[in-house]
Known about the structure:
The protein is of the alpha/beta class. The strands form 7 sheets. A 6-stranded mixed sheet has the order 3-2-1-4-9-10. Strand 1 (3-9) and strand 2 (13-20) form a beta hairpin. Helix 16 packs across helix 17 (444-458) and helix 16 packs across helix 18 (462-489). The longest helix is centred in the N-terminal third of the chain and has 32 residues, at 185-216.
Amino acid sequence: MKLGIGIDTGGTCTDAVLYDYDTKKVIASAKALTTKQDLSIGIGNALSGLPEDLICQAQTLALSTTLATNACVEEKGGRAKLILFGTDASYAMRVIGKNGTITEDDLICYDSRTSCDGEIRSMPDWKALQKELETALKDCQAAAVVEIYSRQTGAFLEQTTQKLLLDHMDLPVVCGYEMFHELDFIKRGASCLLNARLIPVIDTFLKAITRSAARAGITCQPVIVRSDGSLMSREFARLRPVETLLCGPVASLMGAQELTGADQAVIVDMGGTTTDVAFLKNGEPLRVNGGIHIGNWNTFVKGLFVDTFALGGDSGIRITPSDGLHLDNRRVIPLCIMAQDYPYIEQELQEMAELEITSTRSIYEYYILQQNIDDLPGFTQEEREICEVLKERPLNMRDLCEAVHIPVYNLDTAHLESENIIMRAGLTPTDIMHIRGDYTAYNARVSRHGAAVLAACVQITTAELCERVYDMVKEKLFTNLARILLEQQFSWIRREGLDAQLGQLIHESWRQYADGCTPGSLFPLFHTDFVFIGIGGPIHIFLDDVAKAFGTRAVIPEHAAVANAIGAAVCQVAFTTTVRVTPSYNAYGGVIRYTVFSPGDTLEFSPEELEEARIYARKRAEICAREEAIKRGLSSTPDIHLAEKELYFTGLNAIRDILIEASV
């Protein structure tokens, strides 16, 4: 019996499964709350739900996580900076914004005046640069280095800067040439900066896994699901966490396929923080063209197509003067769960409900200190005072404002929340599920009190509030699925995005389904023949109605709540490395040289040495594939398959590139 363990750590829950590879069956599964203050506690609790005598026999430990995905959606992550060679800050800022949430403070630019043939005309003063970087990066947790024309220079500036920093600073540093080979170096830089920001996020997760596995007696080395559905080693993921983007949703897709055997389907995975949508077409997962786009980040990360939007069981139900009652994009801790650790909030919320206190602010929300900032720079005096009063215990909005002498309407905790210093607890769809009896694992009384406070604020009954929240979840699910299906069907919508009128039409389509149509109306309905496969704990409550609105059906397979962990267990190591042979032409169309570009290496050949260039490229492709295999944790010598193809200039009988691809 060959056994494997799959673990998925999400923003709300951590799932674990024990999987038999011989029979392709789940032997046992378990679910526990993700414990943000120490992830190893939640992981350990999930593992404790599996048979103790069998998990020690596991030959694989495969992981997936939505932590990186959630950090992108919620605009969270560690402190990092991007060192860009080949441009100045003014130009970089004009174009980099379309690729991510980046400010000028995140950039350190040096105009090396590198020519397109790889000549570095303005070499840095390395001693001066070292001092500058030591000052600029002193508060950072990671750094990224990217240069223009890195293929032509052999990534000289990137590698030299990386060595300089590693010799003088205790800081993870990742170079662009190690990660991406596309020509757009500004987008490469944005993708590498995102990678640097995610290093502390994934490092925390990996350390927690190591502790939990050791306590459970698991001896096999962990592997992690990558964005393309393959696996990578712990060490590889530690420096390249951007490769875990969407690995949770990708694992759910693999798990859904394993559970259902579907050929044509839309996979809808609703977790605590996000809902992830993927496609199966002709039995194969749909892959993304160009690179993964998530939140505000447009990256070069290769992977399966997954569209992620902020909607989950723990989406905050909030009230603001501008938006009224709405579902917030950020996850909050459900009140019913918070009461497990802080039972006093039940009495406080009950008193607020009985007094019928109203406000246009979310006064029923609590603030919980996640991290001590006494020794951390970069925070205002007001933010430090907020953290100081929260050291004793979590406080609701009214009590917190009173303690720090700030009017409720002036309280600003956005920076503290984005840095993961504090977190909110509040009313969520999970709480509404407890009130309606659809899910009753925690303290439903607290949920009812919180709902009563919010209902009074918006002047409706608690029952009406519950109905409206369920409808808001279904509508957000419907409108996003309609958007995703339209973008897949029509390239112009994918390219230009939905305009306001089409967005309103989608909204009206849901309203006509939900409210019913009056006789003589025009029915703006969106239909699909895709089956919707629902994955994740709360999805069974909402997906059936949404599927009916599309004229199709929903399927919720057995073990749907832990499908991510199953997907992690059934993934395999697979990847491709590419080496290019690129000809350079003179004004008459004659070849003047061939250049072989491979990661961290460039070599030129004369026009008569094309075959020698091909042979060298094949050797480099094999070498790079073996190096990559070692990084990803393959202990045995992998089987490498070489493929060669030629790319031509459009309309011309001239080779643009010869690609040598080594696949494992």
